[in-house]
């Protein structure tokens, strides 16, 4: 039997033949990055390769890195090993990485969802022998309703808040969820205001050519009465901070797959929990894995023990592997935001200082 093309090391997923890593968490020379979330795109590698639409967000988050970007379907060869990216449907710029050499094909999916959200390129199943998958929501209780239905509820809640004269704060992480919410808000109700962390990400995406609905960054000069008529898009790290308290009275809604769990909304002190996830639900995971036609599945993060057992029972050859990929939807985990926020605190212009201040 041929040596496995990819292996799991304490630095990340490694291709010895190609001499590159995929989403490594320790500094290495050659990194292929599935997407720009902090647990996949670490700082400190010599060279980065990612999808074209991850470019500006990666530069914003990681600073001056040596980055090559390619399109979906484009092939790069490293030491004879072919690397090709396919849409993962997780967030804008997210990619599955197909690695092939002498007829052996592996796919590293990173994070993915199977529902087409209309904002990022939809997930595409890729045939392979070995499939490396997440299983953040790998339990049968996780079954998402169509996004249209969830965002219909968001818009109704917003309209109702405006009627009641209370501000509306909607929380979702800054890369992915924020844009998905933004593109589905009913702008007939009012304007969309943004926290600096989200606006910086929006600006990076716009620099990358992504067309997003109009937003207005909240600064100390933004009139509070105007904000109350609109909706405030805020990141998880802003929950419970003086920045958010300034908008009182407000109703606060949280968008996460975890909102499907009883108690999650209460733990986060949210008034409304919207079950909106950028990860595949149970059926999505099973159908995505099935569609690859793979012989072996490797589960990196999520309900790995449970999901692995299930896959083995239904005839897959599945096993758990150890990685440092985290849970970007956990309402108590704001790591992804903290990294961007600490960068925001390095003022590069007057704007940056202002947005840390409180609104009047
Ligand atoms: Zn992610
Ligand atoms: Zn992740």
TrEMBL record:
Residue spans of biased composition, Basic and acidic residues class: 340-360
Enzyme class at the top of the EC tree: hydrolase
SUPFAM superfamilies the record matches: Metallo-hydrolase/oxidoreductase
Presence of keyword Amino-acid biosynthesis: no
Region Disordered, residue ranges: 327-360
One MF term in the entry's GO annotations: ligase activity
Biased composition range(s): Acidic residues: 327-339
EC number: 3.1.-.-
Keywords for this protein: Exonuclease, Hydrolase, Ligase, Nuclease
Any coiled-coil regions, as ranges: none
Entry-linked PANTHER family: BLL1145 PROTEIN, CLEAVAGE AND POLYADENYLATION SPECIFICITY FACTOR FAMILY MEMBER
The name this protein goes by in its record: Ligase-associated DNA damage response exonuclease
Species: Mucilaginibacter hurinus
Lineage: Bacteria, Pseudomonadati, Bacteroidota, Sphingobacteriia, Sphingobacteriales
């Amino acid at each position: 039997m041929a040596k496995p093309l990819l292996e799991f090391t304490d630095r990340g997923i490694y291709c010895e033949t190609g001499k590159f890593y995929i989403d490594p968490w320790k500094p290495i020379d050659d990194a292929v990055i599935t997407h720009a979330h902090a647990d996949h795109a670490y700082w400190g590698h010599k060279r980065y390769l990612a999808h074209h639409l991850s470019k500006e967000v990666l530069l914003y988050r990681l600073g001056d890195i040596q980055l090559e970007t390619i399109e979906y379907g484009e092939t790069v060869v490293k030491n004879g090993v072919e690397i090709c990216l396919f849409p993962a449907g997780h967030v804008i710029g997210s990619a599955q990485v197909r690695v092939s050499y002498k007829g052996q094909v592996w796919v590293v999916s990173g994070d993915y969802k199977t529902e087409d959200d209309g904002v990022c390129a939809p997930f595409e199943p890729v045939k392979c022998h070995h499939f490396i998958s997440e299983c953040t929501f790998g339990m049968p209780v996780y079954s998402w309703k169509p996004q249209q239905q969830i965002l219909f509820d968001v818009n109704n809640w917003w309209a109702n808040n405006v009627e009641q004269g209370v501000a509306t704060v909607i929380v979702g992480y800054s890369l992915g969820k924020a844009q998905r919410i933004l593109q589905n808000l009913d702008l007939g109700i009012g304007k969309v205001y943004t926290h600096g962390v989200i606006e910086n990400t929006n600006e990076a995406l716009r620099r990358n050519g992504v067309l997003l609905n109009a937003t207005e960054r909240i600064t100390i000069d933004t009139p509070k009465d105007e904000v109350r008529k609109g909706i405030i898009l805020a990141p998880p790290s802003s929950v419970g901070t003086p920045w958010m308290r300034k908008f009182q009275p407000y109703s606060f809604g949280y968008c996460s797959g975890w909102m499907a769990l009883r108690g999650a909304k209460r733990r986060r002190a949210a008034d409304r929990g919207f079950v909106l996830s950028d990860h595949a639900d149970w059926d999505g995971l099973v159908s995505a894995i099935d569609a690859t036609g793979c012989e072996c599945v490797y589960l990196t993060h999520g309900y790995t023990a449970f999901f692995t057992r299930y896959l083995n029972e239904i005839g897959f050859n599945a096993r758990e592997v150890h990685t440092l990929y985290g849970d970007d939807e956990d309402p108590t985990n704001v790591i992804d935001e903290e990294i961007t926020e600490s960068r925001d605190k390095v003022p590069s212009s007057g704007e940056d200082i202002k947005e840390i201040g409180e609104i009047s």
